[in-house]
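Researcher: Quick one. two chains, 527 residues in total.
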Amino acid sequence: MRTVLFIALVILFSSCLRLDSFPYNPDSSIESYGFDDYDGEVEIEVGPEYAIADSLIHPLTFLSDPTNEKKTIHGVYLGEIANIATDTIILYCHGNRDHLDFYWPRIKLLANVGGKNRYGVLAMDYRGFGLSEGPANEEGLYEDVDACILWLNKMGLTEDRLVIYGFSLGSAPATELTANPRTLQPSKLMLESCFASDDVFVEDASGLSLPGSYFTSLQINNGDEIKKIEEPFFWIHGVDDSFIRIDTHGETVFGNYKGTYSEAHRIEGGEHGDVPTIMGYPEYLDAVYQFVLR
Amino acid sequence: MNGLLENTTATIRSTILYITIILFASCNATRVIKPLEKGEKQLSAGLGGPGIIYAGAPIPVPLKSISYAQGIDSNVTLSVGLHATSLAFGVLQSDISAGIRAYQSKTDRFGITATPGVHFLYGVHEYKFRSYPQLDALTWWQYSENKHHLVYGGVGTWFELLKKKAHGQIQSNELMPWITLGHQFNMERWSYMTEFKYLGFQHESALSVVDFVSPADRGTVGFYFGVSRRFGK
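Model:
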């Protein structure tokens, strides 16, 4: 009996099984980005009317967390780089799958907000995704997105022209860097299919009030961080989202926002990854445009 | 487009496969089927758990627990259990229950056992405590001539005590019920148990983040295997 107790205590106090990687599903097997030539799986498909001229597609690298881990992060900017100093920029934080190519149609779509290349769009692969160095982790999300903001700032972007857009996993860095800005304070926050916290994931799946900390050490908590945000907030979520439920995740984040302006788009029939498609691309682009114009 | 979406969703879900390990880490095979005799002791180990769909195939999530039971008198058996899977995550999960002989036929062929109990969970990472009272009632029948074979079935539930969930949301799910059906093969000292549970049948699986093996898209089914050794009498 003493042996059993001893073993149990050793396991208990040395137990390090954590599911911190559960939000990430990256693919780092690619050797280069294909963008329009990529023939793998993509999340949504968009027609040729949303194509972006090759001359306006700029692959980039950023040095993330230069004082500590120094990771090279890959990204892509759509638009005239010279316009960063004068125009509004949408910084797109993608979801938890694969790499930039998987989200490329979405990125192109955003480059059509208000007309083709009306606004510059910057997207990046977080560390561990695509060609970006290092393992995916929570602090890396924030560092890598902030590295992009730092680059935009060096290109002349000011806070009043930075709109940050987070989809799914990307809602974590978008919310965190709006609530607790590092380089620039984004002027507007847009979240699509956002999640509230790991607590809600666990509750949804178990039907019980088990804490997320039983399984992960993640500190991502959009449901609480959103309370700090004053900037205008755009929220869009599929009503039929079976991965990140609208009622437990999305509505919690939206309901906790106490800032100056918010708008909600609950898309009937929308699942997790197809909200723009179900909504219709012209309608989706117009909704984003009207918000950016505010 | 639908196929594409399904693939995407399936892959996303697979990334959180491991979460399911803890989601139902609370569940275990029945501790006390037929109460022990006074002074009789029993050590048990259990394996198995709820089934999930992974890579298109149903698999049980492996949960492990060990338990110790002792007959306080011929009508009441106390049992305590420790859950090894939870422990590996830094969650000390134990349960204590009392198997009460509610009815037993004079021929010892048939009986009813009621088992109130409570599960305790304590996470060492953020020091969060949860407790779930439990009530289990089952009927058993030793159907073979030599009484080596016993079948049992019953119902039970966990009770959710908290009224609020994360972020202050209202907890509308007050029960986590199940239906049990099992078989026990008893030798002189050893017993081998196979059990089927249908868990959380009021819970809509279609809105869950994982694909459980789920009749009518509600709850999940679980399969458990247990071995016990009695001694001390």
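The first strand of chain A starts at residue 25 and ends at 26.
Researcher: Thanks, that's what I needed.
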